Every structure is written in structure tokens, then in C-alpha cells.
């Protein structure tokens, strides 16, 4: 396929246009008064998605100009990165990125050196991140978490209470998983469940495109310690699972490209419902982790040392669970069907092994270091013990449930983030206030100084944007806030009053704000130091034909209860 190359200023300004367009659509959702955005579903006959979540809007946008789309895509990646790391703050990161990009573009047109601008921005962001951490309000107060939750979810306290109950029930190592509910009210169920850090081998396994997840209900689980090199080796198990109308989770050392392609094709066509991931752990430790999983899920691992082959495996050898949720980065197994006594015995054995290592004298034991072995055992014990809270989001109808689901998940992530790094005043006020820390940065180089100024200017934007979305004049709100400038005085758009945002309970987790700023600056630095873009010549037909889309929609659970 023919490629085009676009150079320096032309490339940057077109990317900048893309960033602007995407940001314009997303920033209307910022803040408590941020209105919703309606997104047409790409499959005919499926209702539109209504959302107030920045990353959802960002992901729905593809621009017709390929270079503009590269800019928009980079901004989408910022939102995605913030969403993955902090689970919230995506709109804030987009608003910040847009302002940073504008500042850089203007300075570069005026002749500034992009490398120095970038350096200045990096130093400013580092200084601000340290300041945020230093001034964070650290607390374990349930009331504060409730306020964070309310501010992030735009929901009432009942959601906050249920979410905090969920976090307390599963503890630090546990997981809270979110599902579409079937009732008017939200529900919480605490069950066994563990997550490990391996995501799907291909995003084509996705069943929920909006949340980028592959979800399997009542799956069988194959545990295999070698590479699957031939798709046909899996077919008997896939067919047997299909006969039971149940999906299959394949946890295997790897699936080669030759085997993966037909597996995906069959999945997309709806012939089999399957997801493939790699096992947890590394190297030799992987067989042990597969054995742990076998005990948890009530199955038998197919291991080379035991002389097992895929041919010999039957459905009775496979593990089972109530549900599996796989993202690009992790696999969560909920409601494992293993025997409770066998799991307890395994935990007892691992605890004994860990105690033996702890009892070793210095110099005794494994040459690779006792600490590593001990950490490994502790991780496995936590994995076997892990609890999961299943939070079912309720609502009046499917559209409301889906819209609420994203907000409730954001709120959960915000509370977790607040527990990690503390909180600061929200409504754009906390970000605005920390700009003073930048006074400490002094440089002789004008472009370095300009880089710092660009970051400082961006700190005003979230407040302006929240005020604008609430129908206020941003400049007059800003002027009023700056008259106090104490880090807590701001405008509550819900109550339509000025006052202490701490008292009003409008709080942002420091981790969310910090990651939003760091990621925004990171992506803008990349755009601004881009000298050339290589991309495909535009072609008229950029989407698969409609028959393929319909096939995809039918083969996935993208919209499980769509008519
Ligand atoms: N009543 C309020 N008055 C002023 N600001 C508010 C109010 N409620 C929430 N906010 C602020 O709105 C911002 C969060 O808005 P929003 O949730 O739309 O964006 P986000 O968290 O950046 O992105 P997303 O939720 O789309 O991932 C936070 O800074 C929060 O403090």
C-alpha cells in the first residue's frame, strides 16, 4: 500500500488540528455539569451510547484526515493511559494536553527550540508532581472517600457506601469487578476470585468494545504449559464446550500465529466462544502457577512433566469458574469452582514453605536469593486467598445502566487512587494552586522558561473548562478564585456557590491529577518533537464491509441485551 510522508510544521499543525477537534468533543463532559455526548452505535439497529466519560467519547472518534487522526489517536492514547493507570481523569488529561499543545505550537511558530521547550515542560511537570505529593491530604477517613466518590461518579452516597464496602471486603489484594445489573438498584456480591497480570493474546477476543474487555460466563478453563501450534489440537475441547453452550478460556504458554489466526476467525464468526491468555508467573515458576490455578478452578493442568497432551484432555479435566473478565493487561477469574479444602491445603503447604525460607540463616538456601523465593510464595498465597467483589450496576434501562457503569467504575478507581496518594481540592482549584511551586524553577535559557510557562498556563484550563460547561463565564470565575487563591476556595457548579471545595466535598485524588498531567505532557512533547509522519495514502473505503461488521457484532457480546 502506498505511503505518504508529511514533514515538520505541516505534520505538527495537522496533528494539532486533530488534537483540537478531539479535545473539543471531549471537554464538554468535564465537571459535574458536563453534559452527555451521544455516540451512534457502529452496528445498524443497535441503540446509541450515551456517555459523560471522556475516554469513551475519545475512543469513538476517527477523523477523516489521516494526519489529524494521528494527532487525535495520540490524544486518545493519553486518555487510555490515564484511564488504565488511574481509572479516571481522562477528560482532565485531554484538556491539559490541548492547552500544552497549543502553547508549544505557538512558541515553535515563533522560533522556539522544541527540545528546550520539552525539557522545560518535563522539569515543570516533575516539580508539580512532587508538589502534589507533598501537599496531598492523606487520610483513611470514610467520609473523605465518600466525597471523592461522589465527585467522580456524579452519583449519590449510596454508591459511595457500596463501593467502600466492596473495597473493605476484598482488602488491598482483592479485586472489585463491575457487571451490568438486571435490577433497578446496585448490588454487591463477595466471592472468590483472583486476578493475574496477563491480558488477551489479541484484542479480537474482545466481547465488550466500549470497555475493551473479553467476558466469559461459566467458562471451562484449559491450563496448558506449552505452546499451542496447531488450532486443530484445540478443536475437540472447543466443540465439547460449545455443545454445553459454554465458552473456553485457554491459559497456555503461547499460541503461535498459525494457531491463533483460525482461533480468532472462529471466535469472530461465532463458531466458538473462546479467549486465550498466557499463564501468570515467569519461567519455571509457571508450572507451579498452573497447578495453583488447577486447584482453584477444580481442574487438572496439562503438563509436559506428567506426560499430558492436549489430545488426552477432556472437559472433565478442565477448570471451571462463574465468570472470567480479560482486559489487555489482566485476567480476572471469579467464582472458581475448586474444592475449598484442597485450596486450604495448598495455602497451608505454601505457608509452610514460606516459613522455612524465613527461618533460614543468612547465606543459607537458594543462590538466587531467599527474598525472591519468599516474595514468589507470598504472591501465590495472596492469589489463592484473593476475594473479589462483584458490583452489579443497576438502573431503569440498559442505556442508563451502561452510562452509569462507566461512572461507577471511575468512582471506584478514584477512591482507590485517593487511598494510594491522598486528595486535593477538585474543580480545577488544586491544580491551579500548585502552579506557585514553579516559581522555584529559574533558567537563563528562554525556551526552557517558556516550557515551564506553557505548563503553568495549562493549569488554568480545567477550572476554565468546568466553569464554561456550567454555563458560567470562565474568566470571571477564574478571577474570583484567584482573589483568594488558597488552594481550596472555588466554584461548586452543582450548588452554584463559591466557597471551600474541601467543605463542599469536591475532592480529586492526587494520583489521578498527577497522572493526567504527566501523560498529557508526555504525549505533547512527542508531537512537538515530531519531524515527519509516515502514513498510508488515503483510500476511499476505510471500514470493513457492513456484512463483516454485522458478523462481528453477532459474534461478540458487545451489547448483550440489545434487541
Ligand atoms: N460540583 C462540582 N463543582 C466543581 N467541580 C466539580 C464538581 N464535581 C466534580 N468536579 C470536578 O470535575 C472534575 C472531574 O470531571 P470529570 O469526571 O468529568 O472528568 P475526568 O475525571 O477528568 O474524566 P472522566 O471522568 O471522563 O475520566 C474534577 O476535577 C472534579 O473535582
UniProtKB/TrEMBL annotation:
Q: Name one Pfam family in it.
A: Cpn60_TCP1
Q: Which UniProt keywords are present, listed alphabetically?
A: ATP-binding, Chaperone, Cytoplasm, Isomerase, Nucleotide-binding
GO MF annotations in UniProt: ATP binding; ATP-dependent protein folding chaperone; isomerase activity
- GO BP term, example: protein refolding
Q: Does rRNA processing show up as a keyword for this record? A: no
Gene3D superfamilies the UniProt entry points to: GroEL, GroEL-like equatorial domain, TCP-1-like chaperonin intermediate domain
Q: Which InterPro entries match?
A: Chaperonin_Cpn60_CS (IPR018370), Cpn60/GroEL (IPR001844), Cpn60/GroEL/TCP-1 (IPR002423), GroEL-like_apical_dom_sf (IPR027409), GROEL-like_equatorial_sf (IPR027413), TCP-1-like_intermed_sf (IPR027410)
Which protein family is it in? Belongs to the chaperonin (HSP60) family.
Q: What does this protein do?
A: Together with its co-chaperonin GroES, plays an essential role in assisting protein folding. The GroEL-GroES system forms a nano-cage that allows encapsulation of the non-native substrate proteins and provides a physical environment optimized to promote and accelerate protein folding.
Known partners and oligomeric status: Forms a cylinder of 14 subunits composed of two heptameric rings stacked back-to-back. Interacts with the co-chaperonin GroES.
Please state what the protein is called.
Answer: 60 kDa chaperonin
Amino acid at each position: 500500500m502506498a505511503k505518504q510522508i508529511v514533514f515538520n510544521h505541516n505534520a505538527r499543525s495537522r496533528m494539532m488540528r486533530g488534537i483540537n477537534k478531539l479535545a473539543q468533543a471531549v471537554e464538554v463532559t468535564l465537571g459535574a455539569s458536563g453534559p452527555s455526548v451521544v455516540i451512534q452505535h457502529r452496528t445498524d439497529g443497535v441503540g446509541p451510547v450515551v456517555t459523560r466519560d471522556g475516554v469513551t467519547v475519545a475512543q469513538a472518534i476517527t477523523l477523516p484526515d489521516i494526519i489529524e487522526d494521528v494527532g487525535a489517536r495520540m490524544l486518545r492514547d493519553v486518555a487510555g493511559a490515564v484511564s488504565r493507570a488511574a481509572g479516571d481523569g481522562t477528560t482532565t488529561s485531554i484538556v491539559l494536553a490541548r492547552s500544552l499543545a497549543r502553547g508549544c505550537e505557538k512558541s515553535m511558530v515563533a522560533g522556539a527550540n522544541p527540545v528546550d521547550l520539552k525539557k522545560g515542560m518535563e522539569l515543570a511537570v516533575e516539580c508539580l508532581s512532587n508538589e502534589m505529593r507533598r501537599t496531598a491530604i492523606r487520610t483513611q477517613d470514610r467520609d473523605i472517600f465518600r466525597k471523592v466518590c461522589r465527585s467522580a461518579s456524579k452519583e449519590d452516597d449510596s454508591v459511595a457506601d457500596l463501593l467502600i464496602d466492596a473495597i473493605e471486603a476484598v482488602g488491598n489484594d482483592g479485586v472489585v469487578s463491575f457487571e451490568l445489573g438486571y435490577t433497578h438498584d446496585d448490588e454487591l456480591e463477595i466471592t472468590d476470585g483472583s486476578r493475574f497480570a496477563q491480558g488477551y493474546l489479541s484484542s479480537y477476543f474482545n466481547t465488550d468494545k466500549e470497555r475493551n474487555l473479553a467476558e466469559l460466563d461459566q467458562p471451562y478453563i484449559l491450563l496448558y504449559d506449552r505452546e499451542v501450534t496447531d488450532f486443530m489440537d484445540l478443536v475437540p475441547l472447543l466443540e465439547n464446550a460449545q455443545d454445553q453452550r459454554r465458552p473456553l478460556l485457554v491459559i497456555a504458554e503461547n499460541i503461535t500465529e498459525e494457531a491463533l489466526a483460525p482461533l480468532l476467525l472462529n471466535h469472530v464468526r461465532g463458531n466458538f466462544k473462546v479467549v486465550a491468555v498466557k499463564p501468570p508467573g515467569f519461567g519455571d515458576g509457571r508450572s507451579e502457577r498452573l497447578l495453583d490455578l488447577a486447584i482453584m478452578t477444580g481442574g487438572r493442568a496439562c503438563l509436559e512433566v506428567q506426560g499430558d497432551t492436549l489430545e488426552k484432555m477432556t472437559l472433565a479435566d478442565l477448570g471451571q469458574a462463574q465468570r472470567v473478565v480479560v482486559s489487555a493487561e489482566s485476567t480476572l477469574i471469579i467464582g472458581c469452582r475448586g474444592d475449598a479444602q484442597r485450596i486450604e491445603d495448598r495455602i497451608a503447604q505454601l505457608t509452610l514453605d514460606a516459613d522455612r525460607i524465613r527461618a533460614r540463616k543468612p547465606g543459607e538456601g537458594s543462590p538466587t536469593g531467599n527474598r525472591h523465593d519468599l516474595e514468589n510464595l507470598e504472591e501465590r498465597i495472596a492469589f489463592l486467598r484473593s476475594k473479589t467483589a462483584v458490583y452489579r450496576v443497576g438502573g431503569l434501562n440498559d442505556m442508563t445502566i451502561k452510562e452509569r457503569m462507566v461512572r461507577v467504575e471511575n468512582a471506584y478507581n478514584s477512591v482507590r487512587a485517593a487511598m494510594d496518594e491522598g486528595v486535593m481540592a477538585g474543580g480545577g482549584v488544586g491544580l491551579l494552586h500548585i502552579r506557585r511551586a514553579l516559581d522555584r524553577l529559574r533558567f537563563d535559557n528562554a525556551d526552557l522558561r517558556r516550557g515551564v510557562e506553557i505548563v503553568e498556563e495549562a493549569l488554568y484550563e480545567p477550572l476554565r473548562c468546568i466553569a464554561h460547561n456550567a454555563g458560567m463565564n470562565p474568566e470571571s470565575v477564574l478571577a474570583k478564585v484567584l482573589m483568594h487563591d488558597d488552594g481550596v476556595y472555588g466554584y461548586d457548579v452543582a450548588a452554584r456557590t463559591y466557597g471551600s471545595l474541601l467543605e463542599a466535598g469536591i475532592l480529586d485524588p492526587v494520583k489521578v491529577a498527577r497522572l493526567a498531567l504527566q501523560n498529557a505532557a508526555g504525549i505533547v512533547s512527542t508531537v512537538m518533537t515530531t519531524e515527519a509522519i509516515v502514513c498510508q495514502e488515503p483510500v476511499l473505503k476505510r471500514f470493513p464491509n457492513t456484512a463483516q461488521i454485522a458478523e462481528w457484532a453477532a459474534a461478540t457480546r458487545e451489547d448483550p441485551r440489545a434487541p
